[in-house]
Amino acid sequence: MQGQNQQQAYDRGITIFSPDGRLYQVEYAREAVKRGTASIGVRTEDGVVLAVDKRIRSPLMERDSVEKIHKADDHIGIASAGHVADARQLIDFARRRAQVNELRYGEPIAVETLTKEVTDYIQQYTQVGGARPFGVALIIAGIADGEPKLYETDPSGTPYEWKALAVGADRGEIRDYLEEHYEEEVDLDTGVELALSALASANDDSLSPEGLGLATISVEDQQFHEHDLSEREAYLEQFGLLASEEEEAEDADDSDEE
After folding, report:
1. For 75-114, b where at least 16 C-beta lie within 10 A, e where not — what string?
2. 52 in Cβ contact with 40 (< 8 Å)
3. Over the stretch 209-220, which tens digit does the pLDDT of each residue have?
4. Is 12 inside any structural domain?
5. Could you tell me whether strands 212-218 and 47-53 are parallel, antiparallel, or unpaired per DSSP bridges?
């Protein structure tokens, strides 16, 4: 009985390490990320791609209100998976840091610098009493000195740089697909095809443009561009990933049941 009480103490205390060196609340925050729909990032020679699953639970919900891709600065975009409210707090923080850097130094913030400032902020919530970790993972993508950059933030406050990655639900399945098909020396359109195909691999190999979010940042203009419905539909049709009306109806039924 005493052992169980000790276990609960480690489980509830964010600032307390367990005897085997674990912070249970941080691990639970990672589990919260897995409950969010998938987000994918792909880095190519010509830029970076962000693709997200915007699946909703009810046909009564406005799809545009589901925000999973955000503009942090002209040259930086962020995709999230996990608790939406936590993501909004971190994205607001990232936007403020980008603006401060612009005002203080007269130049856009570097992608790596912004990522590390965000993860430093996240890390504070793993060692402060009376607070909980952020239950969200971010994919931060952008261009720095003409080079595409792609980073992940973890609920522990650790930054990782990737060539291609997935966070959220079905992460393992999507990552396996990316590892099998990723190639570095490809153009931006090929990166879009890989990101959408990877997302479709966990969705019966088809997607609907309404349930999808897509953004790109190219090396050429270094500008964040979020693709609208018609552009997303054109990409899906071009790559043979467009869901039929029957499949879209089935997806809507499945969403009602979740």
Report:
1. bbbbbbbbbeebbeebbebbbebbeebeeeeeebbbbeeb
2. yes
3. 999 999 999 999
4. no
5. antiparallel
Looking at the domain assignment, is residue 124 inside a domain?
Answer: yes
254, pLDDT greater than 60: no
pLDDT tens digits for range 221-232: 999 999 999 999
Q: CA torsion angle for 60, 87, 107, 144 (degrees, to 10)? A: -90
Of 15, 37, 115, 126, the catalytic one is 37
Tell me the residue range of the domain where 113 lies: 28-257
Q: What pLDDT was estimated at residue 64?
A: 78
pLDDT exceeds cutoff 70 at 172: yes
Angstrom distance (rounded) from CA 80 to CA 148: 19
Token code pair at residue 213: 């979010």
CATH code of 158's domain: 3.60.20.10
- DSSP code per residue over 1-42: -HHHHHHHHHHH-TT---TTS--HHHHHHHHHHHTSPPEEEE
**What is the identity of the amino acid at 37?**
T
State how many domains the chain has.
1
Reported pTM: 0.90
Query: Is 153 labeled as catalytic in the residue annotation?
Result: no
Helix, strand and coil percent figures for the chain, each rounded to 5: 45, 25, 35
**What is the three-state SS of 82-108?**
ECHHHHHHHHHHHHHHHHHHHHHHCCC
List residues bridging with 226 in a β-sheet. 215
3-state secondary structure (DSSP) of residue 111: helix
